[in-house]
Amino acid sequence: MAKHRKKRERLISTEAAKMAEEIDIPYDASQTTDDEYTLFDFNHGRAFGIASHIGRVNGMQLRKELDNGITIAMGYELKHIDPTRTWVNGQKMKLSAPEDDPDHLFMFYVTSETSREEIHDFLILMTNDFYQRQK
User: Which H/E stretch holds residue 105?
Assistant: First the structure.
């Protein structure tokens, strides 16, 4: 079973690396001090993301970690409007997660102009970064 999982992870890692080469979105990625999460700033504050390195995390907890990363680590101002919308540094953003599941590996704040394709690209960049950090 572990051998099959390693082979699958290697395949995902290779495919993510190939796909990431085609994406032209500038981003900064930094790990939290406890190394449990990686924070992402895409296109100089146009979108923000978080990836969990500890497995799936409850959505509320992952959002809390993302909020803390944006305010403490990145130094941006954040003000919640409602459960799915937030002002980040004066820019209205919505919360987005690639799964409908209550537990997540990834979560984003994106502007209303952000397309599904861009979110997909962010996810590829985050996946590639995740596997690169494991090497």
Answer: none
| C-alpha distances in Å from residue 96, one per residue of 28, 52, 86, 99 | 19, 15, 11, 9
Nearby residues of 29 by Cβ (< 8 Å), 6 or more positions away:
38, 39, 40, 126, 129
Q: Which stretch of DSSP H or E encloses residue 20?
A: helix 2-21
Confidence (pTM): 0.85
Query: Looking up tokens 């459960």, which residue turns up?
Result: 83
pLDDT digits (tens, 9 = 90+) for 80-129: 999 889 999 999 999 988 777 788 889 999 998 999 899 999 988 988 88
Question: Residue 76 in contact with residue 86, Cβ under 8 Å?
Answer: no
Query: Quick one: how far is CA 89 from the chain centroid?
Result: 18
